Amino acid sequence: MYLTPSQRKALWVLMGLVWLSCAIRWINIWQTHNSDLANARWERLFRERADSLSLQVSEPIAEISPGTTPSAPGPAAPTSSQVFPIRINQATAAQLTALPGIGPSRARAIVAYRRENGPFTSLEQLLRIRGIGRKTLDTLRDKIVVESSASPPQ
Fold first, then answer.
1. Which has the least CB within 10 A, 44, 109, 120, 124?
2. Residues 139, 144, 150: CA angle, nearest 5 degrees
3. Residues 122, 77: Cα–Cα separation, whole Å
4. pLDDT-derived band of residue 56, with 50, 70 and 90 as boundaries?
5. CA atoms 142, 143, 149, 152: torsion sign
6. What distances in angstroms separate CA 2 from CA 5, 10, 11, 12, 130, one per listed residue?
7. Cα Rg for the chain, rounded, in angstroms?
8. pLDDT at position 7, please?
9. 3-class state of residue 48 by DSSP
10. What secondary structure letter does DSSP report for 85?
């Protein structure tokens, strides 16, 4: 069978398109598989963090094989001996990270605000800190207390 140069060119283009579509499909499968593993790892880390904070997670999380959880940098998870409420005017940044919705950067912002403006006199002052809104404050109300320096410790 003899092909003209234009037919050979068309055949090469067709073969290239078939190969390209197969390669794209393989890449999509590979990315989907790897993103599922990554999502499962993050969900497992979230579950462990939620368990350490005694939070209830209603969504079931896909299990992954043991030993595949990446180590997460940052402060150690609070121990089960963490006692609420936390005194907002005496707490360190590490202690503040035990609060739901308060990570290391917000904890540092709370400590910085307290250092610059003096002790908190009301919980509403937390709304002045970037990243803390009404919903976060409502979540924290029963977990923090504001004490003046004159009041005796509980």
1. 124
2. 150
3. 27
4. low
5. positive
6. 10, 14, 13, 15, 74
7. 27
8. 92
9. helix
10. S
DSSP per residue, 108-143: HHHHHHHHHH-S-SSGGGGGGSTT--HHHHHHHTTT
Measured in whole angstroms, how far is the alpha carbon of residue 74 from the centre of its chain? 12
Q: For residue 10, give the amino acid letter.
A: A
Q: Is the pTM higher than 0.85?
A: no
pLDDT at 114 over 70: yes
Within 10 angstroms of residue 10's Cβ, the number of other Cβ atoms is 12
Alpha carbons within 13 A on the beta-carbon side of 29 = 6
SS3 68: coil
- Distances from the Cα of 139 to the Cα of 1, 49, 101, 105, 106, angstroms: 78, 17, 8, 18, 15
Residues 6 or more apart in contact with residue 27 via CB below 8 angstroms: none
Between vectors from CA 76 to CA 70 and to CA 82, what angle results, nearest 5°? 135
> How many residues would you count in the chain?
154
